[in-house]
Amino acid sequence: MTDLHPVIAKVTDRIVERSARQRLKYLDLIERGRDAGTNRTQLSCGNLAHGFAASGEDKPAIRAGSAMNIGIVTAYNDMLSAHQPYGRYPEAIKIAAREIGATAQVAGGVPAMCDGVTQGQAGMDLSLFSRDTIALATAVSLSHAMFEGALLLGICDKIVPGLLIGALRFGHLPTILVPAGPMPSGLANKEKVRIRQLYAEGKVGKEELLESESASYHGAGTCTFFGTANSNQMMMEVMGLHMPCASFVNPGTKLRSELTRAAVHRLAAIGWDGDDYRPLGHCIDEKAIVNAIVGLMATGGSTNHAIHVPAIARAAGIMIDWTDFAEISNAVPLLARVYPNGAGDVNNFHAAGGMSVVIRELLDNGLLHRDILTVARDGLTDYGKEPVIEDEALQWRDVPASRDLSIVRPVSDPFSPDGGMRLLAGNLGRCVMKVSAVEQDRWTIEAPAAIFHDQDDVLRAFKAGELERDVVVVMRFQGPRANGMPELHKLTPALGVLQDRGFRVALVTDGRMSGASGKVPAAIHLSPEALGGGPIARLKDGDMVRVCAQSGVIQALVDADEWNAREIPTPPPPPYDTGRELFALFRHHSDLAEQGASAMLAAMEAEL
């Protein structure tokens, strides 16, 4: 067996040491949750009668308390294509539970917003804090103490992190996440990008753009690019929280149904009444969190997880930072190119061997912790195999090698020797840049700043020809405290056009970029944010700014005395009528992006 890579070992040891105090408090919390907390056997007769009153044929089993009762927390809605298939899951789960003498109930629903619908719109200001809302809703769902295990039905951007954060407060429960799979491939991604850029230039109209987008996003299932939603699924694999290789099987197939059924059966097998108890709070430990970061780097995953992984980790008493990300990125080769980092989508990735090849390669080369507690019987090794239906039964088989080296490669021949997520630091603060889709001659941009506080102002300047030059577009007052840290994907086509015209272009922001960050260099999540006096607030139009992923520098090239003497501008007035004012508590008390951009987690730690 290959020894663990020394960098992975060093970072893990540092995280364990840094987290020791909080992790111990967390483990004590979940031990008390199982041994001394409320559970079904301790409910009064009135409590219990309320809990099974509408359970139909499952009522006798729930009443007797003789078998696991599974709590289903679902993010179903039929506006969100990724979650529309979940509508029928509860009934299928209940049938699968009865097959093994268990029962299941829908414990609750959580909101599931679609960043694809709100991208560039006012509703995007609610997006990041929907994660904490989902965590709270998950906790409410599981608070009834009727359950000995949980199935979490969620896929997309903030939903999986939110479900995990909430479920970790009930970390004594064995828990499995159940995906629903990606939609079949639609319009080729290269063609979609071409139409978007033509629209940005005014060369095609809205009808042509809508037709292109409709051909891309055309049915039930997750969007097929490798953004935050599919990065979530990848992470659940390398953390061992799915049934092995379940992420990218299309909805509506027999294989998809059998994987869901297998998750129900497996959950019952890892309950606390048996000899293979696997509680969520022990599955998600320091090694599992490191595996999640390794997976992100090996696959070119979403930059949004530079915020979400620290938040998930904190919920389990584990403290990580962007230095951990950067050191792991330097040690882990890029093994996958999935759009926007390559031409193929997640369906092509799965067909090429997908997660089974990536995990096996990482394990065989000492780049993943093999000895984590997973929901699969034989640990993370099981995740190096792919599921198939043979002889009418679900089985897992080996994938000897990648079936398409243009999409998935071995460690011996990677696309890049490192994972492509860089930490930048300087007199503007700390931020991250994803370079896996950026040409190397654009890793360093030095150009005058153009300052904006609103995405629409950037687009107006673009259409007026005011950005036809080398430029660092600075979008500030976009942090979690300012307006909820929206993604700025709306800017991608315009900035891409400028770059294609030969200009040296970069984006610098205290906001987020899309999880599908692409070819334009983007220094994002800049902390501290502008609101409250972060250094980005000192920038003026025309200041020379250097953004360098090669040396890890982000710097305003301004005389130090002048820089320090500058006054902080008044932030723009907040928009209204979006519902964002309901989230004022989250915004006003949010901590830094590097810590997870959450007010809830900071308050939680104070209570432990």
Automatic annotation (TrEMBL):
Source domain of life: Bacteria
All copies of domain Dihydroxy-acid/6-phosphogluconate dehydratase N-terminal, residue ranges: 69-381
Species annotation: Sphingobium vermicomposti
Annotated Gene Ontology cellular component terms: cytosol
Chain ranges of the Dihydroxy-acid/6-phosphogluconate dehydratase C-terminal domain: 407-597
Co-factor requirement: [4Fe-4S] cluster
Any one GO MF annotation of this record: phosphogluconate dehydratase activity
UniProt keyword terms in alphabetical order: 4Fe-4S, Carbohydrate metabolism, Gluconate utilization, Iron, Iron-sulfur, Lyase, Metal-binding
PROSITE patterns: ILVD_EDD_1, ILVD_EDD_2
Gene3D superfamilies xrefs: IlvD/EDD C-terminal domain-like
Lineage: Bacteria, Pseudomonadati, Pseudomonadota, Alphaproteobacteria, Sphingomonadales
Protein name: Phosphogluconate dehydratase
Binding site for [4Fe-4S] cluster: 156, 223
Catalytic activity: 6-phospho-D-gluconate = 2-dehydro-3-deoxy-6-phospho-D-gluconate + H2O
The keyword 4Fe-4S is annotated on this UniProt entry: yes
Cofactor note: Binds 1 [4Fe-4S] cluster.
Biological or metabolic pathway of the protein: Carbohydrate metabolism; Entner-Doudoroff pathway
PANTHER family according to UniProt: D-XYLONATE DEHYDRATASE (PTHR43661), PHOSPHOGLUCONATE DEHYDRATASE (PTHR43661:SF1)
Gene Ontology annotations of biological process type: D-gluconate metabolic process; Entner-Doudoroff pathway through 6-phosphogluconate
Cited SUPFAM superfamilies: IlvD/EDD N-terminal domain-like, LeuD/IlvD-like
Catalytic class of the enzyme: lyase
